[in-house]
Automatic annotation (TrEMBL):
It is a multi-pass membrane protein. GO terms for cellular component: plasma membrane. The chain crosses the membrane at residues 35-53, 84-103, 109-127, 134-153, 159-178. It comes from Cupriavidus basilensis. Residues 47-172 form the Integral membrane bound transporter domain. It is found in: Cell membrane. InterPro entries: Memb_transporter_dom. This is Membrane protein.
Length: 357
């Protein structure tokens, strides 16, 4: 989408817009963009609430920080804003009921009891699914009602301020959105490049170092954790099911495990016959695996879906049943690794029109 807009724009406009529309640059400078967006949102909130002399306008700014301050990805912001709005409505309704009963009965002890009971109910639901909504409901009760002594007008204005803050946060989440999909793509590409380096080190005696391989495995584990945390937001942003993303995550995890096993079963350094066999019979397949990994990484980084095209056919199938027993395990693992990476390639290609934004 971005590339299409740039291609239709005037050359000078393309030069001006490319730094802010290019997904790779937005990913690299995500913290700066997020900080600028929050600052502009706060300026808008302050200008709006003070400009029209809105009572208790600071709550709009506080709400904006709650919704957007710690969330840079567009999918997260939308989800949190929806939960914040629901929690606000529940808390504001409960707070207004407490204010009404206080103004009618003038019984502070009853107000305190109602506040405690309402917050206890929220705390009960705050543990588990929907916990954020329950927590915000309890907080909003105090924002609107205080300890029950607030005036009805104050309670209504504070509820309105909170909703205004949510609206401003959503508005600025659409300004240069920092999609979780960008981070997911580039993190996955980084993991694939790391796999390519590990695979090259395993099949190439000169570049093999077990300590470096172990360090790479630790890095891969960290990347998988980061990828998993992004998946819910990615699923919402590009309308892909969690099952499809889970399948990609599982395939990546299996490939990393196979690489570790492949390193443990590789021919010994002093076994010249085995090394000659690997060099003569597996070199073509190893090159195909390396090209497949680099192709997937470049497709994710640059959005060139053509890089996900099949990289020929597996060259091991015709010899897998005829190899000597001492090399059969290594050949089988290479064959399995090639198949798993090819499966990952197909899964990425199947949803390329969704993540290539």
């Amino acid at each position: 989408m971005t590339s299409t807009l740039l291609s239709r724009a005037h050359p000078w406009l393309r030069r001006v817009l490319r730094p802010v529309l290019d997904p790779a640059r937005r990913y690299r400078h995500a913290k700066v963009i997020h900080a600028a967006r929050v600052a502009l949102g706060l300026l808008t909130s302050i200008a709006l609430t003070t400009g029209i002399h809105l009572p208790h306008g600071e709550w709009a700014s506080i709400t904006l920080l709650v919704v957007i301050g710690g969330l840079q990805h567009h999918g997260n912001i939308r989800k949190k804003a929806a939960e914040r709005a629901l929690g606000t409505l529940i808390g504001a309704g409960a707070g207004l009921v407490i204010i009404l009963q206080q103004s009618y009965f003038h019984a502070p002890l009853l107000s305190y009891a109602l506040i405690v009971i309402a917050c206890a109910i929220c705390a009960y639901h705050a543990i588990g699914k929907g916990g954020y909504v329950a927590l915000l409901s309890a907080i909003t009760i105090f924002i609107v009602a205080g300890h029950g002594e607030n005036a009805i007008a104050d309670g209504l204005w504070r509820a309105a301020d909170v909703l205004i803050g949510i609206a401003i946060a959503l508005l600025f989440s659409f300004a240069l959105p920092l999609h979780a999909t960008y981070t997911w793509r580039y993190k996955l590409a980084e993991a694939l490049r790391s796999c390519a380096r590990m695979h090259t080190a395993i099949v190439n005696d000169a570049g093999f170092d077990r300590a470096v391989l172990q360090q790479a495995m630790v890095l891969q584990g960290s990347l998988l954790v980061q990828l998993r945390s992004l998946m819910p937001s990615v699923a919402k942003e590009i309308n892909v099911s969690m099952d499809q993303l889970e399948a990609i995550q599982h395939a990546m995890r299996v490939c990393i495990s196979l690489l570790e096993v492949l390193a443990a079963t590789r021919p010994r350094v002093d076994d010249e016959q085995a090394k000659a066999f690997v060099r003569d019979h597996l070199a073509e397949e190893n090159r195909r695996i390396s090209a497949m990994l680099i192709g997937m990484a470049r497709a994710l980084t640059h959005g060139v879906v053509a890089r996900l095209a099949p990289r020929g056919t597996c060259s091991l199938a015709r010899i897998a049943g005829t190899v000597a027993p001492q090399w059969a395990g290594y050949v089988s693992l290479t064959l399995r690794l090639s198949g798993e990476f090819d499966d990952l390639r197909q899964r990425l290609a199947a949803i390329a029109d969704r993540w290539n934004i």
